[in-house]
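user: Here is a favour to ask of a fellow structure person. I have my own habits and do not want them to colour yours. Could you put it straight underneath, so I can go through it closely?

assistant:
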Amino acid sequence: MTSLMVNTLQGIQMKAESRPYLDAMHAVLTHAGWTTLFKPMLAGMTVNGFRMAVHRRLTAESVTAYNWHAEHFLAADFIGILVSSKAEFTFRRTFPLYRKEALADICASIDRGVAAICWHNGQFVAIVGYEQVDNGSCSGRLYYVDGRSDEVQSFDYMDFGIGEDRANPSPHWYYQIFEGYIPMDEAAVMKESFLQAIFKWEMHDGTLPVTDYACGEAVYDAIVHALSSGDYDRVGASETFKCMAAAKQDLAVYMAEAERRWPAAGEAAKHYVRVAELFGSVAAVGVDQVDELCGFFREAKQAETQAVEALRLLVRETLDNRFHDVGLR
């Protein structure tokens, strides 16, 4: 005889605001009671908001082009959240075994009262519940929120990883489980975020081929080149610029809070405010307004360069102690 097992968490609120992973992370952590940080603070302290990468044709995947496994672990680790995550390709012969393990992990997390995050239909979503047939088979549904709708939606266990568009399945699967938290000194976390911001500005993400992607400071020149050449994805560019504008607005708010705590951060905060203003201008014009856009991006590069230089002065002693590896903690 089989029975139906059902468990759905109540009261999880997720709002999609152009920051795919951060939106889901904020929803999970606030529901669990593990953070009271508002999103801009979470964006800065997890370093999520400081990361920049674009495809050189400005395609839509620019927004999620990074090492999810590593970056999401670090984002949580910076603020004292203990996590575990797994990711692989859906076309591997071992995928059905990994899917079974992933579903067990996610359901166990729900049973502990903590939502999970997974990649579904081209976005990060918060898994808030499940129902499954208790007969040992891989039969059931996961319930999730994506922030675009107030409704809780669901998908079949067999759609985990590949998505619901069978004609265009996702090549990769990913999920993250939140296991606990350790109280952190916010001042120390914020100082570390400044060091990581410098690292993100200087370094190329080693998982992305330089021929196809630009990271950090190089993003601005890549955008201007793509726009000037005319060889860019109009829809992808619009989505990329929208997400970048949201991140820059977060950083402006974050640095304003940093200035409130440490007046010496005021110089960096002033430049990040200017960057956010320029990205607001970018979002207000069409992606075909090339000359105007290039002017905004050139000025934004200058403003953000000044912001990073101000951060260098702010954390220069620790920066010097890390020698060639600024990202090393």
User: Anything to note?
Assistant: The two ends are 54 Å apart (CA to CA).
